[in-house]
Amino acid sequence: MGKSRDTALILKKIKKMNNLLLLNAVIIVVISVLTIYSATIHKTTLFYKREAFWGIIGIFVYLFFSFIDYRKYAKYYKLIYILNILILLSVYVVGVKRLGAQRWIDLGPISIQPSEIGKILVILTFSEFLVSKYRDRFIGLKSVLISFLHILPVFLLILKQPDLGTALILMMTYFVLIFIHGIDWKSIIIMVIIGIVSVPTAFFFFLKDYQKQRVLTFLNPEADLLGSGWNVTQSMIAIGSGGLYGKGFLNSTQSKLRFLPEAHTDFIGSVFLEERGFIGGIVLLGLYLILILQIVYIADTTEDKYGRLVCYGIASIFLFHLIINVGMIMGIMPVTGKPLLLMSYGGTSLLISFMMLGIVQSVKMYRD
């Protein structure tokens, strides 16, 4: 009798699943594998095979987290917060340096990037912090500053790696969550003014030399075409040469002639736009917007405040990654090394993306 009841409950949950959410993500991953194949086939078949493998594993990760009641994260949010800090600290003990940053932990055949995990964990904990400490809304800068103390240790640990891009996404997601939860406009205006005033200070006193160079290159990439401006310039050439309909699959030249560095990771969008053109770009952008809008719809149709905040936090991560990466490859934003989620090559990023979508699906399935 008990097994029959459990089976009926599982079937009920399955019926409540938003199947379009997974289908949307899988379509993007298929496009990713094809584009990575095109960008790297002249060198090796390893990258696209690995991406396909992690994509398949990602589906199982998605299903696993879909069937975990999301409210358990709220119940154990303090333990999750401590775990997050420990994971981020571990990179300074057992982490390895790549490209001048200590962001990765090697686990034999795979590497993980703790900051990618840290983003989603801080959403799970900060959302419950807002609900439990400020049930309706909070007013005044004092409440804002106190709430910011929750994410400050995570922010500083990520910034120290250094991973400025992830730290900025964390900050923007923080502002989205406090806005969605409810905050008075006076505090918003004051924070905007403080943010504008602090930009020059941050540039001159907190950014490292290579980070300052990225900003200067963004403002004038032509100043050093063979140096710091190379990546962005070659990316814009690739995008521009794609025209309206693109050059066709396997016909990208910037990556095959090795003009475009990191073609399968940070600049995967440039390869896709060179091959698929403006029309292909609109289709890909549409897939991302549909994905994000589905997450927002699940949030808005959820009465539980915690589930709503978690969904908005996850939607923010996907949105800001999209804005930053697309802006970067088009030369309208500084190069920060942020991947295009579900599209750029990388096992950790792909699995975390599916994990986030699984949590969103859990909100859909377990909400009252």
TrEMBL record:
GO CC terms: cell division site; plasma membrane
Membrane-related topology note: Multi-pass membrane protein
GO molecular function terms noted in the UniProt entry: lipid-linked peptidoglycan transporter activity; peptidoglycan glycosyltransferase activity
Keyword Coiled coil attributed: no
One Pfam family linked to the record: FTSW_RODA_SPOVE
Keyword Membrane: yes
Pathway: Cell wall biogenesis; peptidoglycan biosynthesis
EC number of the protein: 2.4.99.28
Keywords linked to the UniProt accession: Cell membrane, Cell shape, Cell wall biogenesis/degradation, Glycosyltransferase, Membrane, Peptidoglycan synthesis, Transferase, Transmembrane, Transmembrane helix
Subcellular localization, as worded in the UniProt entry: Cell membrane; Membrane
Ranges that cross the membrane: 20-40, 52-68, 80-100, 138-158, 164-181, 188-207, 277-297, 309-333, 339-360
Protein name: Peptidoglycan glycosyltransferase RodA
Taxonomic lineage of the native organism: Bacteria, Fusobacteriati, Fusobacteriota, Fusobacteriia, Fusobacteriales
